Amino acid sequence: MMIVVYILIGLIAGGAVGFLVGNKNTKKGLIEAEAKAKAILAEAEEKGEGIKNSRINRAKAMIREKQEKFEEEAKRRSQKLEQAETRVQQKESALNKTSKHLESEKRRLDTQQESLKTQLDALNIKNEEVEKKRHEIVAQLEKVSNLSAEEARTTMMELVKDEARSLASTSVKEIVEEAKMNANKQAKKIIIQTIQRTAAEHAIENTVSVFNLENDEIKGRIIGREGRNIRALEAATGIEIIVDDTPEAIILSGFDPVRREVARLSLQKLVQDGRIHPARIEEVVKKVSKQIEEEIRDTGERTAVELGIHGLPPELVRMVGRMKYRSSYGQNLLQHSKEVARLCATMASELGLNAKLAKRAGLLHDIGKVPEDQPELPHALLGMELAQKYKEHPDVCNAIGAHHDEIEMNCAIAPIIQACDAISGSRPGARREIVESYIKRLKELESMALTYPGVVKSYAIQAGRELRVIVESDRVTDEESDQIAFDLSQKIMNEMQYPGQIKVTVIREKRAIAYAK
User: Fold this and answer.
1) What angle do CA 272, 277, 282 make, to 5 degrees?
2) pLDDT tens, residue by residue, 460-483
3) Cα torsion 122, 125, 131, 134: sign
């Protein structure tokens, strides 16, 4: 290719020289041009031959290099094939050895199977002989004892049952005591710490409010001519106003604490203003009712902020505020609910549960006590329905409905709400208990103990926190007295409602009396 190029270059050069010289040049000029062209051609041929030889040598070198690589690759593959063949031979040898070992083990197992079959046949023969001997001995025993085998078995089972019952009663007592010591230790610690970290107020007024006066002359103005003022006030507030001989005081009586508060504030404003007549009374009562309603909402919002509870629906916030004017056994409902909420949060945190959810359920657990319409439902179920109506969490709804066992508990925080409600309600000074219900509970405890056979007397002492039961020593054994104590404690737990715990003590005493004359 390069030779052709150089020849073309020479021809072009010769043609150019001829073109430049033209017809004017002499023969000498043509000869010189031809000589130069030949020189150029010779030079081009020489360079082309060098390039040709160089390319040939390079091609030969590349061929040798590829041949060497091919030989190396073939050698490497041959080595791999040899190694694979060696591994296959080794595996084949190992398989042959394993096969021989398995055949040996099969022959050994066959031999053992034959030996075991022989031993089993011998044992069956001996078992038949033993069974024959047993029948002979049973027949002799029946003849000696005048009892059949079935009767002897029944008698033995009765003896075993009595012994097992006695041992079971003792074991149950030990297990219960051990469980109380071990399982309740941490629970008691958590409850004590929770109670110590929470403080609340004592009981407050229940259904009566007292309005104090500066002097008794104002009573006449409150009553009005022919009692028109007091009638207008009672009609506007729905509260009974009692004006009696109590000096400088008027009694406001009613079960709705919100209305009592409206009546009290209305009286206060009327007395301060001095203008007391039916029209003015209606105006003041409306204004005070609006003021109380705003205060109820503010109280609910402050309570939610104070406890860190967010997202309460406005109607539930209003019900929380109404708790301020509601009491249960003399205990302020709002203070009780706040106390339960804090107790629940603390206890849930100690147990690794959702503290925010527990606090929310603790605040709302008595929400069923404050609706204005007062439907015929237990407050726990009513509170659960209200929580469900306002889309509260299912665990919160279940905890509200189950805190007095009206429904089954199906979440972890429900028993916490129940326990904290009992803690808040049963602490000293939290509630007033009606004397009649207190006496009724004591009598019920004593009569429950007298239903057991062998019980002579029973005494409920320490304000009903301990029940002492005296049994006849001739009719009741020590094991039976343990059983009576356990059964009675379980019966009290399942059938009665009481604050705290009740200790059951069964006393069995043997007295030997003799007279020397």
Assistant:
1) 90
2) 887 677 899 999 988 888 888 989
3) negative
